[in-house]
Amino acid sequence: MTEPTLGNNIVTQVGIIVRDIEIKARAWSEILGLPMPNIIITDTVDKTQAEYNGKPTTARAKLAFFHTGQVTIELIEPIDGPSTWKDQLDQHSDSLHHIAFEIKGMKEKIAYLDSKGVPLVQRGEYTGGRYAYLDGGAQLGTVLELLEND
Amino acid sequence: MTEPTLGNNIVTQVGIIVRDIEIKARAWSEILGLPMPNIIITDTVDKTQAEYNGKPTTARAKLAFFHTGQVTIELIEPIDGPSTWKDQLDQHSDSLHHIAFEIKGMKEKIAYLDSKGVPLVQRGEYTGGRYAYLDGGAQLGTVLELLEND
């Protein structure tokens, strides 16, 4: 067995794209018996420095998180500019979008995955860290998200 | 906070539908640095008693499992008859399919979810337990799988 090449194989988040986050968050809350989470909006591009397909994007999203043990269920409603979130909603309607791993060394991990045919599609900063989505569709059958918290 | 109504909110599995499980399993193995798993084939319908949309189905699947902490990543290649797996492959190509919860009391949990607008679409037996897929697309944005191990 070789060493894990992302440095971490533990799935910590599952992301779901939704058209109406208020309705979906209420349904998750009711069905799982969890408190209704706050719905937050991602920062503006001057803070996130978001890039989609290598270009700056004004994409933002409404987010809601359900914390259930090791895995956080993340609901994502895309708003504004082009994004992997909006693409998926347009092409597949409400649906599972990604699984996430927490890593250290974002630049190196992105380069590693790119070398394996899993290219970067979107990235951005948030308070205390950064994220990247990598299109694993061809190799893995899913988008991967990398999360690096400082 | 109300009591969790499935009795368990811990995500234990993420399922991915793939067209060619050999190729995808090798990619997951290489990229995550995990051993190549055995690829198994689900039992025949006389053992699984599988039903899809309320009718018996000859649906089977090739399966591969990557165990990564609390969450198992399950690759599923549909074969043979009609199934939720084949529907998703036909409609969305390789893609995330479900998140799974382990529960007790399958009949009651299916009835509970049905009462919340999350209907049963497929069920079956396996050695030591049973599974059910419930179509949470409209309410939750994803298929849920319930797993009950005896």
Entry keywords:
4 helices; alpha+beta; 23% helix; 150 residues; 10 strands; homodimer
The tally of strands of chain A reads 10
Put simply, the count of helices of chain A is: 4
Global geometry of chain A: globular
> Strand order across the biggest sheet of chain A?
2-5-6-1-7-10-9-8-3-4
Q: Could you name the ranges of chain A where pLDDT drops below 50 across 5 or more consecutive residues?
A: none
Biggest beta-sheet profile of chain A: 10 strands, mixed
- List the secondary-structure elements of chain A in sequence, H or E: EHEHEEEEHEHEEE
Q: What share of the residues of chain A does DSSP label as strand, in percent? A: 35-45%
Q: Greatest contact pair?
A: A-B, 46 and 46 residues
Cα-based radius of gyration of chain A, to the nearest Å: 15 Å
Assembly type:
homodimer
Question: Termini separation of chain A (Å)?
Answer: 29 Å
Q: What percentage of residues of chain A falls in helices of 4 or more residues?
A: 10-25%
Rounded mean pLDDT of chain A is: 94
- Given the helix and strand composition of chain A, which structural class is it? alpha+beta
SSE blueprint:
2 copies of one chain form a homodimer.
Chain A: E1 11-17, H1 21-32, E2 40-41, H2 45-48, E3 51-52, E4 55-56, E5 60-68, E6 71-79, H3 84-92, E7 95-102, H4 106-115, E8 120-126, E9 129-136, E10 142-149
